[in-house]
Amino acid sequence: MAQQASNHPMDPAGPTGKLCTWIDAVKLSDIPESVRTRAKYLILDGIGCALVGAHLPWSEKAVNVFLDIDPPGKCALFGWDKKLSPLTAALLNSTFIQGFELDDWHSEGPLHSNSILLPSLFASLPLLNAPISGPQFLLSYLVGLETGPRVGNALYGTYILTQGWHSGAVFGPSASAAAVSKLFELDAAQVEDALGIACTQACGLMSAQFESEVKRMQHGFPARNGLMAALLARGGYVGIKKVYEREFGGFLDMFSKGNGKDPQFQIENLTEGLGSVWKAENVKLKPYAAMAATHPTVDCIRKLQEQDGEKMKDFDNIESITFEMADAAYSHGGFEVQRPLTTTGAQMSCMYVTATQMVDNQVMPQQFRHDMLNRDLVWDLVSKMKCKPNTEWKSFKQSAEVKFKDGKTIKGHVENARGNDPELSNDEIVEKFRGLMKGVIDDKRRDEIERCVLGLDGCGDMMELCELLEGVSMNPIA
């Protein structure tokens, strides 16, 4: 008689085994109501970002490539009237969410969770034999929110960015595989297979932040690959066992080699406080359409504009602007830029982004239209700017010093970024969503999406929301 497969992980007491067992066992009622409520607003923000990004030039370019090579499928593309295969839909919908640097980020193990979780979960819906309720979807989403940052923290979180890895593309396959595994109701042994299949596909080069458009797609790879991993595990395909703690070729060992840390990685962070400390609480949302490390730089300039608005408008009188920032922010956004600059490069640059704040008093999608990227006034200000690292500073602490030709100097300092501390409130998230939807979809559709997302507790079939996301949306920078 054939031996019956176990529904337990290979080593239930090990780090991978503990995580898989928790993913299998956790119920929505185990999660605090405040965390569940906040998650619905996070989902609303992610959907807004997707609809804004759906018809940006780089998004349309990617969609057209896949429309040429993929047959029609049954999984919707957000903001389009097209359907493609599950894996392609997950990849492209993620590209939309990441399309304009408007989406969420995690303050510890940095990744953009919505661009990983929402595309893989929505692409899963047509693959299931029964309707998925709002509470089921929400629970799966929350499992992903917990998993990704824990994997990131085991690799020292933001440190991996300073090494040139695109952290979300490294941590993200675990998050996607965990979330979809929960939606598929896989047992702990199958979850271990899914994570093992997902982790071997992890990668992401941060050099994508310069000239390329692929930076928009790099969270799509884990969205797609985590979904594929869960599908394979559901079909009985065996993944890498004990993938996080393996000594030879294990995930944490390989992505931490040569980092000079002692210990090389922090495997206890994978499961410490699991089920009592909620990493979902540290998902942050962006008030500006730019990479997160640029936000405190903008906040410094905003503070100076509030402090001495007339002086800050006297651009001809400005001699120099110096920004000081923590090493991770400097490595990520403090690089020198030269014209011409792509939209991606502009949104990644502390200097360019803050120049737009000085000129336009805002940093939103329209600041990065092609006709706005080559403005002499913006580039004159950029030429006066310099960024320097402070190895003693952590996280988003930054300062700005503006020297004027008349001898005056003004300084601004922030300990953190707006959106991180203080966080955007739930009301501010709704305000952001409604603002982003202006000119992108009509008000009736906007209100229906908002009603459906914030009412997930009473949603009997998530395809209702999925259908609202299918209709065509407009390009906000056309």
Strand content is 5-15%
Name the overall outline: globular
The fourth-level CATH homologous superfamily of the largest domain is 2-methylcitrate dehydratase PrpD
Main beta-sheet strand count, sense and barrel state = 4 strands, mixed
Order of helices and strands: HHHEEHEHHHHHHHEHHEHHHHEEEHHH
Text of the CATH class of the largest domain: Mainly Alpha
Q: Strands of the largest sheet, in order across it?
A: 6-5-7-8
Strand elements, count: 8
* Count of discrete alpha- or pi-helical segments spanning 4 or more residues: 20
CATH topology of the largest domain: 2-methylcitrate dehydratase PrpD
Distance between the termini: 65 Å
Any idea how many domains? 2
Derived from helix and strand composition plus strand pairing, the structural class reads alpha+beta
What is the alpha-carbon Rg in Å? 22 Å
Low-confidence stretches: none
The CATH architecture name of the largest domain reads Orthogonal Bundle
Chain-averaged pLDDT: 95
Helix content: 40-55%
Pfam families: MmgE_PrpD_C, MmgE_PrpD_N
Organism: Phialocephala subalpina
GO molecular function, one term: lyase activity
Family: Belongs to the PrpD family.
